[in-house]
Amino acid sequence: MLNPHLIEFPKMGNPEIGYISVVEQNTLVPFEVKRLFWTYYTPESIVRGRHAHHKTEQVLIAVAGRITVTTELSDGTIQIFRLENPNVGLYVPPHAWHTMQYSHAAVQLVLASDVYNEDDYIRSYTDFKEIWQSK
Amino acid sequence: MLNPHLIEFPKMGNPEIGYISVVEQNTLVPFEVKRLFWTYYTPESIVRGRHAHHKTEQVLIAVAGRITVTTELSDGTIQIFRLENPNVGLYVPPHAWHTMQYSHAAVQLVLASDVYNEDDYIRSYTDFKEIWQSK
């Protein structure tokens, strides 16, 4: 079972022409991308996330601005990741309770291993602890 | 054969909490996404693109900033699209010669129907006209 970790995507280009980063199936992302979403115009005062999953794996990328992601595992391990490079992603496994806080104008791109299914979300912290401690 | 057209993705949220837009397979994007890339820090003086494809279809989204996309078909039809909403994408078919110009801080997200293959690019305008006029 993979734990939260940063993924460095290729960054091709230079300051004179700009940069491009690429994801193709079966390369740096350890799952098949079934859903893609992006979040934007999130006020700095808002904390998003606050859930874990049963199965869904995700990669979060700050394609613009800065995102501070806090992950917590059921054994109490807490990590804080500051995403601020458009070529760096954070792998978030299903068993990580996670919260995100966004800088003004941040755009978060998320690659997910499954289509949306509310049943896959664990939105109670107590449930999260119980479910993932027992595995 | 589909021509260039705008796609409006769902935009969920409100100003107090921010917004999210989503792509799942087989919904608004008329192909299976095999490659995903994003471009950033492109100087305003740079024009990107200047090619067509044999097969690859794409959807371009300005998830941050503004992108001006010019498409030209082999019959001479020219269209100019101004992308400036993170929930609006532009479908670019293989038979559209296209160029893009970016605002300062624009981030372009591209969904593509095929993995990267240089042989699929038509980088000569003359070849583009010949190849696509004959189809």
Topology:
The structure is a homodimer of 135-residue chains.
Chain A (H helix, E strand, L loop, with lengths): L4 E4 L3 E3 L3 E7 L10 E6 L6 E7 L4 E7 L2 E6 L5 E6 L4 E5 L4 E6 L4 E6 L8 E2 L2 H9 L2
Antiparallel strand pairs in A: 1-9, 2-3, 4-11, 5-10, 5-12, 6-9, 6-11, 7-8, 7-10
Radius of gyration of chain A: 15 Å
Distance between the termini of chain A: 11 Å
What is the assigned CATH homologous superfamily of chain A? Jelly Rolls
- Beta strand count of chain A: 12
CATH class call of chain A: Mainly Beta
CATH topology of chain A: Jelly Rolls
| Overall spatial form of chain A | globular
The helix count of chain A comes to: 1
Task: Summarize, please.
The structure is a homodimer. Chain A is mainly beta and about 140 residues long. Chain A has one helix at about 125-135; strands at about 5-10, 10-15, 20-25, 35-40, 45-55, 60-65, 65-70, 80-85, 90, 95-100, 105-110, 120.
Search tags:
homodimer, 135 residues, Jelly Rolls, five-stranded antiparallel beta sheet, 1 helix, 7% helix, 48% strand
Give your account of this protein's structure.
The structure is a homodimer of 135-residue chains. Chain A is mainly beta. Helix content of chain A is 7%, strand content 48%. Chain A has a single domain, classed as Jelly Rolls. Chain A has a 5-stranded antiparallel beta sheet with strand order 1-9-6-11-4, with no helix packed on it. Chain A has a 5-stranded antiparallel beta sheet with strand order 8-7-10-5-12. Chain A has a two-stranded antiparallel ribbon with strand order 2-3. Chains A and B meet through strand 3, strand 4, strand 6 and strand 11 of A and strand 3, strand 4, strand 6 and strand 11 of B. Strand 3 of chain A pairs antiparallel with strand 4 of chain B.
